[in-house]
Hints:
Blueprint: H1 2-18, E1 49-54, E2 57-63, H2 67-75, E3 78-85, E4 89-93, E5 107-108, E6 112-116, E7 120-124, E8 128-129, E9 134-140, H3 146-150, E10 155-161
Antiparallel strand pairs: 1-2, 1-10, 2-9, 3-4, 3-10, 4-7, 5-8, 6-7, 6-9
Amino acid sequence: MKRIFLTFCSLVLLLSLSGCRDRDASPQPEEPASSSEAGSGEASASAGEITVTAGGREFSAVLCENAAAGELLEMLPLTLNMSELNGNEKYFYLDRGFTGEPVTPSSIRAGDIMIFGSDCLVLFYEDFTTSYSYTPIGRIENPEGLAEALGDGNVQVSFSSGSVN
C-alpha cells in the first residue's frame, strides 16, 4: 500500500512539474525589424490618420504603427456611446478583442487613444500618472478643447478614416 501511495505521489508531482515549463523556452519566430520600429506604439503620420468627432467638434488623430491600431482602422467608421470614468477618460467595451502590445506608461496625456485589457477602447482627455497597462492606438494631435467637447458625462464619439478637412 505504501508503495502504491509513493508511486501515485511521484506521478502527481511529475505531472505538476511538466505544466511549469518556461513558455519562452520554445523558439519564437523573429519578426523583421523595420527602420520605423513598427511595434514601438508611437504615433506616426505614415501609420494612418483618423478623425475623432465629439460634441460637434472634430479632432485629427494619428494612429500608432501596431496591429491593434490597424485592427481599429479596419472597423471604421465607428460611433460609440462612451462612458465617463475618473474625470479623465471616456471608455467603451467593444464586441471584439484587439491584438495586445501593452505598455505601462508612467503618464497619460490628453488625446491618447488606447486599449485597456483586450477590448476596452479608451480616449483620455486629461493628463495624469498611471500604473495601468494599455495598448497604444493613437493620439489626437491637438487635444485643445477635447475635454469640453467630451463633457462631464457619457458621450457619443465617432471615429472615421482620414484627417479633418
